[in-house]
Design a protein that fits this description.
The protein is mainly alpha-helical. It has helices at about 1-10, 15-25, 35-40, 65-75, 85-100, 110-125, 135-145, 165-175, and strands at about 80-85, 135. It has a domain at about 45-175: Orthogonal Bundle (Chloroperoxidase), CATH 1.10.489. Helices cover about 45% and strands about 5% of the residues. The longest helix has 18 residues, at about 85-100. It is globular. The two termini are about 25 Å apart. This is Heme haloperoxidase family profile domain-containing protein.
């Protein structure tokens, strides 16, 4: 169901979402479903230095946090779009904030890759993945109101979002983030009781 919804709603190819869906299932005691509450399990899909949530160790890692989102919302001043440069700068700023406030921050290659792909995803879904830009008003409605900005003129991307194009965009964003690891990859729990 999630793969079909991702394709129907956002035009994301199932291959992009399949790993996240499978990993999401490891957070749930139910074999075929998971909830947002399950997904807040730290170190599985949820990670530190989020664009819109607090770090697990210091606060609410489930619900939207406006103060944290302001880093993204206020980026790329003087423009009405976010781009790969601003996305990389936001990743860098969010990580610096997490490192300053969270003594237990997890910042390995795994989390960095997830953060890079998530940024590529919001640019691709809310804007033009080929150009690496997304209108600020679309991105802000999507995060703040957790809805598709259809009333504001957003349309489902005309071309499917594929792993190869997302990876290229994520790489450009990553290059602009000046990232350095502060620890090794964490162990992924195999289930909610593990």
């Amino acid at each position: 169901m999630i793969l079909q919804a991702g394709f129907d709603g956002y035009h994301i190819e199932p291959a992009v979402l399949i790993l996240a869906a499978k990993v999401g299932l490891t957070t749930s005691p139910e074999p075929e479903t998971f909830t947002l509450d399950n997904l807040k399990a730290h170190g599985v899909i949820e990670h530190d230095a989020s664009l819109s949530r607090q770090d697990f160790a210091i606060g609410d890692n489930l619900h939207f946090n406006e103060a944290i989102f302001e880093t993204l919302a206020n980026s790329n001043p003087g423009s009405d779009v976010y781009n790969v440069t601003s996305a990389g700068q936001v990743m860098q700023a969010r990580l610096a904030d997490s490192l300053a406030k969270n003594p237990n921050v997890t910042n390995s290659e795994m989390e960095f890759t997830m953060r890079s792909f998530e940024s590529a995803l919001y640019l691709s879904v809310m804007g033009n993945g080929s150009a690496g830009v997304a209108p600020k008003n679309f991105v802000q409605k999507f995060f703040r109101e957790e809805r598709l900005p259809i009333e504001e003129g957003w349309k489902r991307p005309s071309s499917p979002i594929e792993i190869s194009s997302l990876a290229q965009l994520a790489d450009l964003i990553a290059q602009g983030s000046n990232w350095n690891a502060t620890n090794e990859c964490a162990t992924i729990p195999l289930g909610s009781g593990a």
